[in-house]
């Protein structure tokens, strides 16, 4: 398919932006293969004075559009034109008034087609030409070999396995994974045949102080006949060593795990995993999250709701409860590793959603490096992108729509992760090197981006489509010094201690800056925050100067003492003569 074939109207004049990220204004619309461009009208006097004046255009990726609607302004009089409504994946809404109804409907059909491409290779990242100098290639900044090299400094109990070379054992895993040192590849293959989709246990996080670890996998295929795998049991038992026990944290409820057994899945039988304690900490399934987000966004867009109705909608949507349940499970995993000093296995069903939620959040709580910009990038790359979270399916649509093909697989799992990170950030604002602006930036790029980091569902698809060869990594852009500085948190003070957030209902807050972003005027709030950040940055600059001056003072004091001693010696020598 040629993208140009889907464009029925390449340009439409006599357009009025009725609602959107700008003040209402007249202009024109243009459609390209990947963008809708709104150009504000320039009056004749301004054009005459400054014929080359810059026009502040609004560029919107088609892939950022969630739902398209077209309707006549007046049903009784279609000649009055039409209304084009675009509901975006970042919750923004744009309403354009177009003078001709035929043009409005043609533009709507074009955007509907171009925002639902079923071929990854037609997406914008394959056509984007890098407009900045790549100083740090994001495709090579984070890989398993570098991660393993850092791990070897702390522990020699692990090895880097290439059992999944060419993605033969597990299609959703990367080619290189970190596994227990004493376990051979043949055992890993046997374990893969015993785990759903071949997702055998691999290292997620190693705690340097307690020497305990977090591993992730998918559910065992026990089934109604009680199937077992001695190789899988050996892998898990090899983690215990001197430890008397370990924990298997199942992100499903007991009923869900039992129900899965009748369909061929299930949970590890206690008689075969006797040294492991089994804990069920239910995290909402990815299929439930889409409905919760849709209800939340609907409530946020209802400006006419009374206080009681707003609170009822907010509590009834289920999103905040999902945040609380996810954080609770992550805290349990972190406590097992940090307080009880035992290894933890985390899995749900497929191992690509709730499992990754919990392992990445527990790592964030335990590892101070994961709370830096660079460390957080590595966490997302390792625990989400390389770990096989199906971004292409999950983020095909947002809160406003479901896809005809991808609908059953869509879910805001990654957004839930970012919301949980924001909750911890709110409680520990000085322990994060980045701000919430960085989290919102990642949310938007997960759903629509000029970069290729979130394209595809796994590393295998990235290789098949040549994503790393033909597109630019998001991290290449973020790590550019000019871009990076706007995400830095001036309040940041390195904190090596684990973070223990409160998960009580009173502590779980609505992420207003994200969910009410387009309903409120944030000018004053952003201005006040910018002022605080500027003064904090100024304070750090002055503190650095004070440290330099103190060192200089110490050096001068030493020189003065040496001079006095020299003078004293000289005077004594003179008196002796």
Q: Can you describe this structure in just a few lines?
A:
Belongs to the protein-tyrosine phosphatase family. Non-receptor class myotubularin subfamily. The chain has 577 residues and is of the alpha+beta class. The protein has helices spanning 44-49, 101-114, 138-141, 144-154, 185-194, 230-237, 254-262, 286-301, 307-316, 319-338, 354-366, 373-385, 391-394, 413-427, 436-447, 459-465, 467-470, 474-478, 481-484, 512-515, 523-576; strands spanning 11-19, 25-31, 35-40, 58-61, 65-72, 82-88, 93-98, 158-161, 177-180, 202-206, 213-216, 246-250, 276-280, 344-347.
Notable traits:
single chain; 577 residues; alpha+beta; seven-stranded antiparallel β-sheet; five-stranded mixed β-sheet; 21 helices; globular
Characterize the structure shown.
With 577 residues, the chain is α+β, with helices and mostly antiparallel strands. 42% of the residues lie in helices and 14% in strands. The chain is built from 21 helices and 14 strands. The strands form 3 sheets. A 7-stranded antiparallel beta sheet has the order 4-3-2-1-7-6-5, with helices on one face. Strands 10-11-14-12-13 form a 5-stranded mixed beta sheet, covered by helices on one side. The protein has a two-stranded antiparallel sheet with strand order 8-9. Strand 10 and strand 11 form a beta hairpin. Helix 5 crosses helix 6, helix 10 crosses helix 14 and helix 11 (354-366) packs parallel to helix 14 (413-427). The longest helix is centred in the C-terminal third of the chain and has 54 residues, at 523-576. The protein starts with 10 loop residues before the first strand and ends with a helix. The mean pLDDT is 92. It comes from Plectus sambesii. One of its GO terms (cellular component) is cytoplasm. This is Myotubularin phosphatase domain-containing protein. One of its GO terms (biological process) is negative regulation of autophagy. GO terms for molecular function: protein phosphatase binding.
């Amino acid at each position: 398919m040629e993208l140009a074939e889907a464009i029925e109207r390449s340009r439409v004049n006599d357009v009025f932006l009725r609602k959107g990220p700008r003040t209402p204004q007249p202009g024109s619309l243009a459609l390209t293969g990947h963008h809708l461009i709104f150009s504000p009208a320039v009056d004749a006097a301004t054009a005459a004075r400054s014929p080359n004046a810059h026009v502040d255009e609004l560029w919107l990726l088609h892939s950022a559009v969630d739902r398209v609607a077209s309707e006549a302004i007046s049903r009784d009089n279609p000649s009055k034109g039409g209304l084009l409504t675009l509901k975006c994946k970042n919750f923004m809404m744009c309403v354009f008034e177009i003078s001709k109804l035929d043009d409005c409907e043609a533009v709507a059909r074009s955007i509907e087609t171009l925002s639902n491409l079923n071929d990854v290779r037609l997406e914008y990242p394959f056509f984007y030409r890098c407009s900045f100098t790549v100083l740090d290639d994001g495709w090579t900044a984070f890989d398993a070999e570098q991660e393993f090299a850092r791990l070897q400094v702390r522990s020699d109990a692990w090895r880097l396995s290439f059992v999944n070379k060419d993605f033969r054992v597990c299609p959703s895993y990367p080619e290189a994974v970190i596994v227990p040192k004493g376990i051979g590849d043949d055992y890993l293959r046997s374990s893969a045949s015993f785990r759903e989709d071949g997702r055998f246990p691999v290292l997620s996080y190693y705690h340097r102080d307690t020497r305990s670890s977090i591993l992730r996998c998918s559910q065992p295929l026990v089934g109604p006949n009680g199937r077992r795998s001695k190789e899988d049991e050996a892998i898990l038992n090899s983690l215990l060593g001197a430890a008397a026990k370990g924990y298997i944290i199942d992100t499903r409820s007991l009923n869900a795990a039992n129900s899965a057994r009748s369909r061929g899945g299930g949970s590890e039988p206690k008689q075969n995993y006797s040294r492991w304690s089994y804990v069920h900490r239910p995290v909402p399934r990815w299929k439930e999250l889409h409905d919760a987000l849709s209800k939340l966004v609907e409530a946020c867009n209802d400006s006419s709701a009374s206080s009681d109705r707003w609170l009822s909608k907010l509590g009834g949507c289920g999103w905040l409860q999902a945040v609380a349940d996810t954080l609770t499970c992550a805290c349990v995993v972190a406590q097992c590793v940090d307080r009880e000093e035992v290894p933890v296995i985390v899995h749900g069903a497929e191992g690509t959603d709730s499992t990754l939620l919990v392992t990445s959040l527990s790592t964030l709580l335990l590892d101070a490096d994961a709370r830096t910009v660079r460390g957080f990038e590595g966490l997302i790359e390792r625990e989400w992108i390389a770990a096989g979270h199906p971004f292409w399916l999950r983020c095909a649509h947002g809160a406003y729509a479901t896809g005809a093909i991808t609908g059953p697989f869509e879910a805001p799992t990654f957004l839930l992760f970012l919301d949980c990170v924001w909750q911890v950030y709110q409680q520990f604002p000085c322990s994060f090197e980045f701000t919430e602006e960085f989290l919102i930036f990642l949310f938007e790029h997960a759903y629509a981006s000029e970069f290729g980091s979130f394209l595809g569902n796994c590393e295998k698809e990235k290789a098949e489509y040549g994503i790393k060869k033909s597109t630019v990594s998001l991290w290449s852009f973020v790590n550019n010094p000019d871009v990076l500085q706007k995400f830095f948190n001036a309040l940041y003070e390195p904190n090596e201690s684990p973070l223990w957030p409160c998960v009580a209902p009173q502590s779980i807050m609505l992420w207003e800056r994200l969910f009410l972003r387009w309903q409120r005027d944030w000018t004053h709030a952003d201005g006040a925050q910018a002022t605080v950040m500027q003064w904090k940055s100024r304070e750090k600059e002055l503190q650095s100067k004070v440290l330099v001056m103190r060192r200089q003072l110490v050096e001068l004091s030493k020189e003065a003492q040496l001079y006095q001693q020299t003078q004293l010696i000289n005077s004594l020598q003179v008196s002796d003569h």
